[in-house]
Every structure is written in structure tokens, then in C-alpha cells.
Amino acid sequence: MESLLQQFLSQETETEILEFKEAKTQYDKDKLGKYFSALSNEANLKNRPNAWFILGVNDKKQVVGTEISDKQINEYKKEVSDHTSPNMTFREIHRVEIEGKKVLLCEIPSAAKGIPVSWKRQYYGRDGESLGILSLDEIDRIREQSNSFDWSAQIINGATLNDLSPEAIAVAKQKFAEKNTHIHQEVLKWDTRTFLNKAKITIQGKITNAAILLLGKPESEHFISPATAKISWILKDKDGLEKDYQHFTCPLILSVQSVFSKIRNLNYRYLQEGSIFPEEVSQFDPYIIREALNNCVAHQDYTLGGKINVVEREDGVLTFSNSGSFIPGTVEKVIDSDAPETKYRNPFLANAMVDLKMIDTIGSGIRKMFIIQKSKFFPLPDYDFSDNKVSVKITGKVMDINYARKLAQMPELSLHDIMLLDKVSKGKKLTNLDIQLLKKRGLIEGRKPNFHISAIVARRSNQKADYIKLKGIDDQYAMELIREYLNKFKTASRGEFEEFLLEKLGDRFSEDQKKHKIKNLLQKMKKQGEIRLNKDRKWEHDPGYEYGGV
Q: Which residues cross the membrane (predicted)?
């Protein structure tokens, strides 16, 4: 590090990936975050693995020293991690003593391929020594990298066949032979090098990131750092409290089976319509578990350094999550197209996993998960793409057997229709196109965002009581109840109206929305001259109003 510092000090000026700051006792956290974003983005654009932010050296490259403590350093790291997107921090902060003065060499990792780094939602860059906003052209240049860069295909210098697990290789060869039945016997005769090349796990005998992920020995994980090959299984009780956990690493071809074995997958019983004998099924179909888990492995964005999480709740819910965006955009697009995707995040890894019978790229995997859940009357898989993660929640129990069964018996409903109605039942946000489609088909009623199932669906699915409860009473009936109340009790405060009207306005509204609605109805009746506020600030009939000849 001392030699590296001397090298930096010998340069004529600061550069896009090198910045000196005096910072004798502290440095402004907000400025630090801006420089972190800028230097990380510039390192990416210059195809460098890192950039450097040096504390204890002034602009004239004179060593002045810094007294910044370890506690302050930890605060800086946390601040950067909390406010950068994707969440990043310093790779390492090195202390060097030169001329009896302490200098900090802060090593900033390059922005991942295809993903510029922002600080508090703004992208920063450098123009020579100057800090500024990253230009739109530079943002596009970074984002376009994802179209050509395949992290999983990168060759690891220094790794050899000895860094792979013989047991994992044996399993992979057997799976490859089963997948390619026409050359089954030939495959079993190949030596390890030939097999790995033919299966496109290595490239001309050289070890790739994909090879370490799928077949690497546990101690070989360091080769792919800062990426990780980790899957965490976590068991929680129904209140979300952690009861047990276990972490798994490479070789992932074996670890996914170990994770599968940890999931308890109890039997679930319910009565089928027209039968006195209970139906018994597994809470989680084995296909769904393997598909969701292997999709996490295949499509994780390993450049973000995250791990795969499998959270099992004792009340019958499984959640799988991995780092990165959902490249197809929406689940509906995947279901409706029912065809292979044109682009994958890790094509080299995905193709290898196809040949090892771990995943299927014909486009039916996610669709099959939905159909399995639908046929068991279980809630459909629930996807969440927030926080630059892909999460899917699988519920292994019937939430409402009558509703699910009746919907399944409406043959005119497509899988897409049922997916959208599933969203309505879960109170999830609908797109304008979804709303237009469901309203045109007469499947939902209400106003955005408070939709509920329509009378048609309620009648067909035996949910008439729930329909009335959701829909609530209309404005005219509500005003008639206000009139009736005043006829009987003469005066009433708004709170008294709320007391008997709130529960009648329907479950699709929040309490605040209901109170606002009552306020608007009272104002409407006041404008019409029907009611007024008396000196006690209570509502009463306006004596000058004539009620239709009564």
C-alpha cells in the first residue's frame, strides 16, 4: 500500500479514478457519498476494477495526515451502504504511515456491468478532477453493458479442475447423460475435461464463474468474490420469529438438493366437492420448489454480491428471493407469451443448467407453477420486484375453498383473468390496462384503487355476502339513512353519523376514506338546502327545505 501511495503521489494530477482530500479529522458524509458514486462509475467506464479516494493528502499532493478513527470509518461505510443504489460500500480502507503521518487509502469497487451507482438517487461522475452529474450518454454506456456482458461466462485466472468437486462433477455428468439420451453411453465415457467443455460449463478447459457456482468445492467460493455462492434457508414461526437456519454454498448443483431436503413440506388435507373423502396433497409441489429455487440460481445478479434466501414459515408459506431485476418486466408477460425469453442475465450459466436438467428455458416453468397452484385451489404465486430483488411467495394451503373452486369452474376465465382476480383478492395494485380488461369483462367493480369482485363473479363463486360487504351502500342510500336518523333524533354530530355509517360503506375503503366520504355527503346535503349546522354545531333538518311534497 505504501508503494501504491507513492505511485499515486507521483502522478501529475488527480484523475477520474483518483481523488485526494485533506480530511485531517473528518470528512463530510454527503460529499463522500457523491465521490463514491462518481469514482465507482468512472472506474466502470474506464474498465478498471476499482478507484481510489485518499484521505490525509491535500490538493497539492502533500501528505498532511488524518486522525480519522476506526469508529468514523465504520460510520462512513454504513452511510455509503445505506444511500447508494445498488447498495455498495468500500472494498477496503487501508491505513498507511508515511513521513510519520497516517493516510487512508479508500478502495472503491467499480460499478457492476450494466448498473450505474447512484448516491441519494442521483448519478455522479467526473470530468478530469471535477465532480459533477454523470451525463446521460455515460449512464447509457454503462446500462448498455448488460446487453453484452455475461458474468457467468468470465474465465477465472488461477482456477483449475482441482478446484471443482468430484462428487458434483459425477452428478452433473449423470444429469447431462439423462438430458441427452441419444449420446448417453458416449457421455459416460468422456473424461472430466471433455465433459465440462461439451456441457459448456468450462471454456476450452478454463474454469468459468458458472463452473465454480455449480461444481466448485466449498473452499473455492473465493474465486468469484465479491460475488457469493450462498443459499440461506430460514425457518420462521407464524409470527415471523426465526426458529432455525442453515447456509449452503457451492457446489450449487448439490446444495439445491440439500435446501430442498430442509423444507418440511407437510401434507395438507381438504374435502373435494362431491366427495366425503379428504383430498391429501403436499403443501408445496416438488416441481414448484425446484423451479423457484433453480430460477434464483440461474437469474441472480451476482455482480451485486447478494445471496439467495429461502424463507419457510410454519403457517404454510415459502418465499424465494434473489438479487437483481426481473428482466421480462412482468409475470403476466411471461404467462401470456408462454415462450422462451429472448434475453437472460446469465446465458452461459442458464444454458449449462438446462443441460444439467436444473431449469427449463422453453418458457413454461413459471406458467406451470401457476397452473399447479390453481389446480390445487391454492393462491397463485405472488411476485414482488421491489428493492432490486425478485421474490416469489408460494402459499401451501387453501385460503378460500369455495371461491377458488367456483372460479375454477368458470371455463370462460383464462389463467390471465384468474391471475388478475387473484390480485384483486389480495388488494394488489392493478395497471390501467388490467383495470380496463377486467371492467370490460364485467369482473370487477369500484373505483381506483378500491376495486372488488363484480356481482357476476360473486354470484358465480358463491361470494354474494362478501360482495355486499365489499361494495357497501351507495351515496343515495347513505343520504336516506342520514335523513331517517334526523327524523327520529332531530340532531346529530358528524361523529354520530360516522358511528352508524362507517360499517355500511364497504370494506374496499379505509376508515379515513369512509370518514371523508361521510363529510362530503353532509356537505352535499347542506348545499342542497336539506340540512344545516345549528348553534351547537350539530346537524339538523333545514326547516325551509321541502321533501318532495311530504
A: none
